[in-house]
Amino acid sequence: MQDSVGPTNAEMSDPGISRQVVLPLRKSVEIAYNSIRVRFFRSLITTMSLVLAVSFLSFVNVSTDVANGLLATGDPELRQALVRAGYDLKPEDRRADSSPKQRWIVLLSLLVCAVGIVNAQLMAVTERFREIGTMKCLGALDRFVLRLFLLEAGMQGLVGAAAGAVGGAFFALMNGVFFFGRQAVVLVPVGDLLMSLSTATAAGCLLSLIGVSYPAWVAARMQPVEAMRVEQ
What we know:
The protein has 10 helices and 2 strands; from the N terminus they run βαβααααααααα. The chain is mainly alpha-helical. Strands 1-2 form a two-stranded antiparallel ribbon.
């Protein structure tokens, strides 16, 4: 941490303004990365729950993209193959969609993942009482502590969501090859595939940030004296 050079004239004239810790964003990212590395296994467990939830979302979306690519050919045999595979297609349908059951399962998996992230982050806050108290005693503001936890969640969320999106897409394509052959991969619209990957990754990152918001607020509002008094 680097402290400010000193109080300005305005600060000297106003007793309500005290010296504050000035920390560059680069240093905040470094601290967040080191914190994840020190708590690697705890971070891995939290990230894996996110990977599984996002991979299921990606699997459902990419499977729908595969079905739409096959439907776009207008081949009646491929349409029948999709019906046999479980897609509910009416004669006038030109595009497939995920079933309500699939959407509910995806929603529930994301909800369970969010609860898991909140629980893991609250435990992380409890483990780091002294660390947080030390930082605040040295002059760290509430927004710095908040930013630190959000950066950690953002890093885990980006890695976990990207891995889950790619993994889910891979298994969806392999599932398409198993049922429909190579054409399932060849005919899938690239634009739709990229959109599904982007949507799943963005949903995972957003979920991670939402899950850490309350624990980060708890950590930021913690009083330094109370944090230092806690016995580990």
